[in-house]
Specification:
six-stranded antiparallel beta sheet, 6 strands, 38% strand, globular
Length: 168
C-alpha cells in the first residue's frame, strides 16, 4: 500500500526566505515537517527559477526544465534546510544549476535529525528554462507576482538593481 500523499503547501511556495544571492548563486531556506523529498526538489527549482527572474529584472518566464542526479528515495524531511543553487552554465534559453540542500537544524529539540541521504544533504543538477513573456506568459501579471514574492522572501524592495547581493 502506498504512503499517503503529503499536502501541498499553500500558497504553493516552498521557500521561507532568501538568505543571500549574487549573479552566480542563490541561497534560500525552507523548513520541512515530515515532507516527501519531492518538496526539497521543488524548493530548489523555485529558488533557481526566482534567481533567473531576478537576474532578468523579471522580464523572463523561468520554469523547471529538467532534473539530473537528484535522489528521490522515500526519505522524509524534517527540519530547517539551506537551499543552495549555483549557476554552472547559462544561455539565452536556459540555465544549469548545481543544487544542494543541507540541514540547518531540526524543527524542534525533540525532532529526529533530518533524513536526507548519507551526509544529511541532497545534491543534484537542474535546468531552468527561460522564455520571453508575451501572449502566453503575461509579463505584467507574472512580473508583479514574482516581484512581490521576491520582496517578501529576500526582504528587498522590488525595484532594487539586479545583481546586488541580498541579505547575508
Amino acid at each position: 500500500m502506498a504512503a499517503p500523499l503529503a499536502p501541498i503547501p499553500e500558497p504553493f511556495c516552498l521557500l521561507d526566505a532568501v538568505r543571500c544571492w549574487d549573479k552566480e548563486r542563490i541561497e534560500a531556506e525552507r523548513s520541512f515537517q515530515d515532507a516527501p523529498v519531492w518538496q526539497a526538489l521543488e524548493a530548489a527549482a523555485q529558488a533557481c527559477a526566482l534567481h533567473q527572474r531576478v537576474l532578468a529584472d523579471f522580464r523572463l518566464h523561468a520554469f523547471l526544465l529538467s532534473v539530473q542526479r537528484f535522489p528521490l528515495e522515500p526519505a522524509r524531511l524534517v527540519g530547517r534546510f539551506a537551499v543552495h543553487g549555483r549557476v554552472l552554465g547559462q544561455s539565452g534559453r536556459s540555465a544549469l544549476y548545481g543544487i544542494r540542500l543541507a540541514p540547518l537544524a531540526p524543527l524542534d529539540a525533540g525532532a529526529p535529525e533530518a533524513a536526507a541521504g548519507p551526509q544529511g544533504c541532497l545534491e543534484g543538477q537542474i535546468a531552468i528554462g527561460l522564455a520571453p513573456c508575451g501572449e502566453r506568459f503575461r509579463q505584467g501579471l507574472l512580473e508583479a507576482h514574482f516581484r512581490e514574492r521576491w520582496r517578501r522572501l529576500a526582504g528587498q524592495k522590488g525595484g532594487q538593481e539586479r545583481g546586488q547581493g541580498g541579505r547575508g
